[in-house]
Amino acid sequence: MVSGAGERCRFGAVWPGTAALLMSVAACATVPAEQALDGISTPPSWTALTDDAPAQAVTENWLADLGDARADAVVAEALARNKDLENSASQVGAILANARVTRASLLPQAQFGFTASSVRTPAGDPQFNPETGEFEGGGEASSSDSYRLSTSLSWELDVWGRLTDQTRAAYLDVEAARLDFAAAQLSLAGAAVQGLYGLTAATLQRQLSERDVETGENNLRVIERRYERGISTSLDVRLARSSLAQSRANLAQRRQTEIAAARRLETLLGRYPAGQMQGLGTLPGLPTILDEDGAITGVGEPGWLLVRRPDILAAEADIEASGLRVAAARKAFLPSLSLSASAQSLVADSYDDVSYDPDDLIANLVGNLVQPLFQGGRLRANEKAREFQLKSSLAQYGQTVLSAYEEVENALTAEHLLSTQYTAQALALEEAKAAEALTVRQYLAGTATIFDLINAQQRAISSESQFITAAEARLSNRIDLYLALGAPFHPQTDPDLIAFDQPIGSSKEGS
């Protein structure tokens, strides 16, 4: 048993009093979500943070914190058009409808009936009478009609609360589905912004490769002219051609990457994946989340996730629903009491003669008390199935919480390391560009070889490419941090105002 109450929670051996039995059912089925975290030592602050600064509230709108209107636009469009989100919304509606079906079992069920029948007797065939030598008998066809009205009422009284438990569990399923939908919205918003910045980074990489190809073509022309004058060797020409061919290959690969990124974003936004969407001109800067001492702020405490993240709250609702279903399965062993009533009018020969006068009704009222005795183990198997489902819900909750902790810890660690990487990469790019410019002057002066020039150019290209990658990684990780914290977001753009037939960044006025 999940609750640890052992055999006292079972119905097999001893039949206790009704009050004690119901208390036992409730105690065994009620399991706090915190039980799933037994044995897990949750620290008071994130281990990825080395400072002892007091916890501060998580941002109330991470989308606004980015300060990027086009990021706001893609989120609004994704929420309005994404097909997976539409599917999730429909599933919430279906679960709500099923909950209402379950709730109907608490109420009386009434039916009204009208019966009409017509009986036709065919004419008889005449029979030959040998005594008279004539055909006798037969006759005309006849018919008779009859009409009757009836009503019936049935109601299972929820004496032990079994039907209430099932209804409450069904509505907790609705709550869990709504929370899962909120988690899907949060995830989609993050994916849309990351998709926009990923597309922007792919565009910048493609533009970098185009400049690389252009530089390689210029180098080849210069080297070929120097070769014609006898200054350069055929080896220089071949090396320049090889470098240019490699640059063109890199350009083709980056064009493919850019188109794939555009199609991913278009699909997220519910557009046809034509690969025509454009990224931003540059990657935006990141808003700081550091205080004056360089410590990360606005991430709260680990325990705050339990009341912030919609997926954790959904898993908690699932535990409560599973516990109620365990209780309902155990109450199925108890007697059930139902009432049924019916009333029928007297049979009439015509519809106009049908009377529903109370004095002419045939009525009955039946009370039905049923105690399950033997059902081939169905009730016991159903109880075990519900208990295992409760165990599964507890395990799922624990795993969801641990995964949430892991996501935040990883994002916080990456926030420090990616910031360091970004700063170092910016310096590497600056120095690589300065070295490239110096090598070009030395090569033209004859003091550097073609090897030196190509290597310097490739280092500059590589450094700029890595800088773009580092900048995009910082943006993506910041969004991952917001998602891991369950931070809310509120897009301000009206999706109906977005031009769906134009790439992001363009406008009708400017076209």
Automatic annotation (TrEMBL):
Subcellular location(s) of the protein: Cell membrane
Pfam families in the record: OEP
Top-rank taxon: Bacteria
Membrane topology field: Lipid-anchor
Region (Disordered): 118-145
GO cellular component: plasma membrane
Keyword presence, Lipoprotein: yes
Gene Ontology molecular functions: efflux transmembrane transporter activity
Keywords: Lipoprotein, Membrane, Palmitate, Signal, Transmembrane, Transmembrane beta strand
Extent of the signal sequence: 1-29
NCBIfam families documented for this protein: outer_NodT
Family, similarity comment: Belongs to the outer membrane factor (OMF) (TC 1.B.17) family.
Database matches in PANTHER family: OUTER MEMBRANE CATION EFFLUX PROTEIN
Name of protein: Outer membrane efflux protein
Protein source organism: Parvularcula bermudensis (strain ATCC BAA-594 / HTCC2503 / KCTC 12087)
Phylogenetic classification of the source organism: Bacteria, Pseudomonadati, Pseudomonadota, Alphaproteobacteria, Parvularculales
